[in-house]
Amino acid sequence: MSVMLTKFESKSNRVKGLAFHPTQPLLAAALHNGSVQLWNYRMGVLVDRFEEHEGPVRGVAIHPSRALLVTGGDDYKIKVWDIRPQNRRCLFTLHGHLDYVRTVQFHHEMPWILSSSDDQTIRIWNSTSRNCIAVLTGHSHYVMSAQFHPKDDLVVSASMDQTVRVWDISGLRKGSPGSGGPGGGGQGSGPGTFETFDSFSTVKYVLEGHDRGVNYAMFHPTLPLIVSAADDRVIKIWRMSETKAWEVDSCRGHFNNVSSALFHPKHELIVSCGEDKTVRVWDLAKRTAIQTFRREHDRFWVLAAHPNLNLFAAGHDSGLIVFKLERERPAFSVHGDMLYYVRDKYVRSYDFNTGADIGLLSVRKFGSPYLPPRTLSFNPAERAVILTISSDGGMYELTGLPQQAQGDVKDSSVDGKKGTGQSAIFVARNRFAVLNKATQIIEVRDLANAVVKTIKPPVQTNEIFYGGTASLILSSLTSVVLYDIQQQKTIAEINSPPVKYVIWSGDGALVALLSKHTITIANKNFSTHSLIHETIRIKSGAWDDTGVFIYSTLNHIKYCLSQGDHGVICTLDNPVYLTRVKGKTVHCLDRSARPRTITFDPTEYRFKLALLRNNYEEMLYIIRTSTLLGQSIIAYLQQKGFPEIALHFVQDTNTRFELAIECGNLDVAMETAKEIDRAECWERLAQQALKQGNHKIVEKAYQQTKNFDKLSFLYLATGSTDKLSKMQKIADARGDPMSRFHNALYAGDVQGRISVLRDVGLHPLAYLTAKTNGLDELAEEILEAAGLTEADIDDVPSFPASNLKPPPIVTSTTNLNWPAISAGENFFDRALAEGSLEGGVEPAYVNGDAVAGASALDAWARDEEVQLDIEPEEGAWELDADGGEFEAAEEEAEEAVVEEELGAGATPGVSETELWVRNSPLAVDHVAAGSFESAMQLLNRQFGVVNFVLLKPLFLSIYRSSHTYLSPVASLPPLHLHIRRNPAESSPSRVLPVAVRSLQSIRSELAEGYRFVSGNKLVEAQTTFRSVLHALLLVVLSSDDEAKLWRDTVTAAREYLLGVSIELERRRVAEAEPDNVRRNLELAAYFTQCELQAPHMQIALRSAIGVFAKANNQAHAARFAKRLLELKPDPKIVAQARQRIAAGDRNPRNAVDVSYDEFTPFEICAVTYTPIYKGSPAVHCPYTDASFLPQFKGSLDPLTQLTEIGAPASGLPASW
Amino acid sequence: MDSSEIYHVKQQFILGAYKSLVALTLPDPNSPDYTPTLLYQARAHIALNDPDSALRLIPAGSDNVAVKATASLAKYVAASGSASKDAQEASLEELRDLAVEIEGDDAEGSDSDKALVRVLAGTAFTRAGEIEEALETLGVDTEDLEAVALIVQIYLSINRPDLAKKQFERSKRWAEDDLLLQLIESTIGLVTGKDGYSNTSSFYTEQLGNPSLTSPHILTARGVTRILRNEIPEAKSDLEESLEQQKGDAETLAALVVAAGLGALKKAETEELWTRFVSEHPDHPLVLDVAAKESLFDECVAKYEVPALAA
Known about the structure:
The structure holds 2 protein chains of 2 kinds.
Chain A: E1 5-11, E2 15-20, E3 26-31, E4 36-40, E5 45-50, E6 57-62, E7 68-73, E8 78-82, E9 89-94, E10 101-106, E11 112-117, E12 121-126, E13 131-137, E14 143-148, E15 154-159, E16 163-168, H1 170-175, E17 202-208, E18 214-219, E19 225-230, E20 234-240, E21 245-252, E22 258-263, E23 269-274, E24 278-283, E25 288-294, E26 300-305, E27 312-316, E28 319-324, E29 332-335, E30 338-343, E31 346-351, E32 357-362, E33 375-379, E34 384-389, E35 395-400, E36 410-411, E37 417-420, E38 423-428, E39 431-436, E40 441-446, E41 451-455, E42 463-466, E43 471-475, E44 479-484, E45 489-495, E46 499-504, E47 510-515, E48 518-523, E49 529-533, E50 538-543, E51 549-553, E52 556-560, E53 566-571, E54 577-582, E55 585-589, E56 595-599, H2 603-612, H3 616-626, H4 631-639, H5 643-646, H6 653-662, H7 666-676, H8 679-692, H9 695-705, H10 708-718, H11 721-734, H12 737-747, H13 750-759, H14 763-772, H15 776-785, H16 827-834, H17 859-865, H18 872-876, H19 884-901, H20 912-919, H21 923-928, H22 932-943, H23 952-960, E57 963-966, ...
Parallel strand pairs in A: 32-36
Antiparallel strand pairs in A: 1-28, 2-3, 3-4, 4-5, 6-7, 7-8, 8-9, 10-11, 11-12, 12-13, 14-15, 15-16, 16-17, 18-19, 19-20, 20-21, 22-23, 23-24, 24-25, 26-27, 27-28, 29-30, 30-31, 31-32, 33-34, 34-35, 35-37, 38-39, 39-40, 40-41, 42-43, 43-44, 44-45, 46-47, 47-48, 48-49, 50-51, 51-52, 52-53, 54-55, ...
Helix pairs in contact in A: 2-3, 6-7, 7-8, 8-9, 9-10, 10-11, 10-12, 11-12, 12-13, 13-14, 14-15, 16-19, 24-25, 24-26, 25-26, 26-27, 27-28, 28-29, 29-30
Chain B: H1 4-14, H2 18-22, H3 34-47, H4 51-57, H5 65-82, H6 85-101, H7 111-127, H8 131-138, H9 145-157, H10 161-175, H11 179-192, H12 198-208, H13 216-228, H14 232-245, H15 250-264, H16 267-280, H17 285-301
Helix pairs in contact in B: 1-3, 3-4, 3-5, 4-5, 5-6, 5-7, 6-7, 7-8, 7-9, 8-9, 9-10, 9-11, 10-11, 11-12, 12-13, 13-14, 13-15, 14-15, 15-16
């Protein structure tokens, strides 16, 4: 035990009381200044403060299941608080103690509160009735602590009177049944009437032994032990039986008053603290000190243990610390589908596929018994492991693992090779590297533990990791170095905080370097890398098969893409250590090193990954199947520069408009602008359209905003003369002279210009304009109108006639928009319009249906989030189950396409049959869709069918019955219509073909076969059963119940087919080889071993009785007769059977020796018709599970004549 | 506006009552109804796959473009029966010429004649598999409902119900509640299966109650709809009733085969029905399709090696 890991520390007034929340990362601290603090120790934030006590608060406890806090202070009061943030308040105060309250505690099941006080009493309160229901008197000095027993009705108390007392409070439970209910128990008894309670509780033991006052005492969680801490600097352990209690031993070591001593909730340890400023850990069994943690200035006053986790809290003079005693991260290593890890000092293997979890090797004798190994490195070639442990200054051990789990787990000390070193890993099949931190030497050793090479690392190395072939990764304080062992040189170096863990991707192309708060993703030669920062501690990580790194922090599972994008997958209650990610499942080890799996929804990161890799098919597939919607994905797409993709998701008009503007999709922008119809939108649209040279839209936008000036100018710019003249008229109508003038100017309309000028009284300008444009007459007129003559203005210089004209129209821009580069046919436009993606192969495991593994956070934990991330189930993706909204988007996309396609030929869409194939894993649906090839593949894979010829009529009739034709329009080829299973379902992603044969109809065919058997038409029966088995291959099932019925039907048909075949063979033998009595008898006997229904079993048995009796095998015949009687046949048959039994009794012998042992269970080989007794090797038909002798593996099954015996098969897929 | 006689004739044509339409006596050659009735009758003959009768009916040497187009279609259908490529191509060329001719500004003929030419040409092109050309000729922005019906079926046949719906929505604006429009809607319903084929089903049920005509085709259509709705016994009764009225109708028989396969008949009866159907209508798409699947099956089977039977 060399570590005591401090997880959290706070500075405050002296801490006198501490209590952990049982489920949430909360810790209550009672302070000497009268405040009670509630800390979230994981996030390191003060969550709440309760300040109503006057004077110091010493006792504090949190209710084991409810959001309640109880505190007791020097104001003699006990207060109960509701700690839920929304209604935090003091619920009630319990008055009664006459001096300081030292400790308080909730009972684990009764509504009781236990308190101890300097008034020398211990009291029990009913928190429902809020009355004191018992007062335990007897201590003759301050009672320093009182604790309930974790199970029994006992209380242990410690007092300054130097005693520890155990109280029996069972009377309280029995004696006052009403005490649990409201108002029960103490109705007539107010506080102070102590006498009433004394009969309920009695002192059971008084433990004397401490020489000074005792500060604390508690029961062991499971054993009959008590630990006490006293001012005599001694910790005492006491044992108790039913009748007595006695001192067991003392732990000495503290050199000042011991404030508190606790049993470790899980391990055989005691943790204590005292005024000597130390926290000490003791071995409970040996009573020896294991570890001491010293503090410079602060005396420790109180200790608390978390009820479930390896966490402790200690309160001292200036605050509190939360610590754990050991690293919880289990040492593990993943190879292929196997996880090798250490739990409870055993190396175990865990198979990700089967979940098999086997102990392989004990490492109990390796290093300190209190410390688990720190790392494990696995060598698959040699099936060996190297473990390191940090005890004894750091050591390693190399051991081979047994090939298979054996009864006696081997101990590593037998042949393990040890050495010192802080870090040890395999670097090659027969080499491992060991780092000695102190000497800064890396030794490369062979499997015999002999040094073959010594390396001086180029940097101060704290830890080494595997760095790829013949390379090491060296972690130093400020960087990681990729180091070539062969050439002894640095290949690359990346600056990084100390790297603690290194995880290679499955293909070895990428590596994740984990530090406390950063992840560096690098390629294998460190030439490119990206860095991710986390505010919360990073715990572990694993690579997804697609190259996504999934990692866990203290409270989240997150993903990170190789370019550095990351996000939350789900939240965690407690940290886990990820080992492997497979599809939607995360395999991990929890804090107690137990393998666990978490299912999550990979949609978000898979989508992002697809985006990153431009894998539009997959994106589209995700869009289709998961209905991705919501702000975050839009924001993401926008941010990543894919507004045109985001556009496909958005329905909100405003957002659509924004996106459309951003990606320059003017059509959509126009459409949405129309809907929004606000001036600013039109203006922005106009701007964007202007940029793109789409003046028609600009025109529209200007029109909408009545921006006449710009409109006129636009017309001028595009050379739209007729529109300009219209604008002139509009300006006239508006009576806006400036606009009229502009338009006249733009249009080159001199007359118009003059008339404007005249209208507004600007005669000089009008005159000059007329004059310079050679309109002398008009000029005269103006002059006249102004009442002037030519002579009056001879001082006006004369200008030469103007030859300025509006520029001629070179290109009739009016009629054409500025050609824009076609963005190409957007993949999404096309795919969405077509209603499907072409050749869309379903990506391996993308789906939106998985339930995210995130557990709902409660009010507290949510506070921690601090909007760091969006929870997957809330904001992020809105994985909407119904596709309705998406369909709308689909239609919109179509709109755009259709416009182009009008006139041209439309491209064909996806046919219904393709949808069927896509929507179903059932062979029968593929047959109905006419996709025979895939149907055969499915049958082959699911049931090992190889001989399809026999299924041809079935295939064809199913296909034929799944489609129909109708010609609604004269003379056109008829429409090919497809019959669906559920006419109410028309969504393309769910349509399935009609179920041509129902399970019911096949069962009635089976019944027909039964009738043939009854009617002794065995050949027909054989054909029928075979056909039933064929038909069952191609039947639609829709529920587990149906699947079970299906399996039963298959089995029944198989048994009958087998039975009938045996009987037919018997008849053939009887006919062809009349001398072969033995075989005849055997076959008759085997027939009775098939699982037949009672009436048919009777037939089989009677036939067997007849044959055996005839052959004079009376004993056997009698046995069959007995079996016959059990079936309760006709009275007539009963009589015959009894005769047979009597005959057997008279003559219990068998004339012919047959191979038939009815007492050992056996299966019948369906080829040879010979028994395969239980335990003998057999192979099976992958479809019917019929048994065969091993030599028939790979042959065609003679029963169904369809399958290959012993072929691997996956079985019926559950598609419902 | 059509006269009531013409309206009735048209209704019969639309609803597939070709037999009763063919049986009508033509009005007086001078009546304005004469040519339209004649055309519908001729088209009914073609629809019944009896182009020769149509050709006999059509007066040779008519200048009317619609009449000429009908004759060309009849020739085309006749030729496709004989599998003579040249004859087919020749009649397609005629239709192409006509289609071009009516585009000219000075082309003769009324608007409705021109529309009919397009419909007939479109029909022939579709039959020839020239879907693009058919759509081009019909014009996807046409305001002729017959053309729309054709376009819709073309779209449906290439699995583009979305486009078909668009056409329908577009037509709703100007065609109001025309019978043909309802038929178009129901046809789309047949393919998309919206609301469990309820629209289609009620359309055909409604038309069955139409007092002014009886058409076994509607019965067949409802039978097919009922098959699609998985109402097999009901479908069977519709189809059988339809067969009583028109013995040996390929379409009805084909549907009955399907219904039989879905449990309307026993297995042996179904197979017998099927064998008969195959021999009587070897050219029906169902037969051809199944035959294609049969060879596909053989092809696929060949990929699997069958081990020896265990013995």
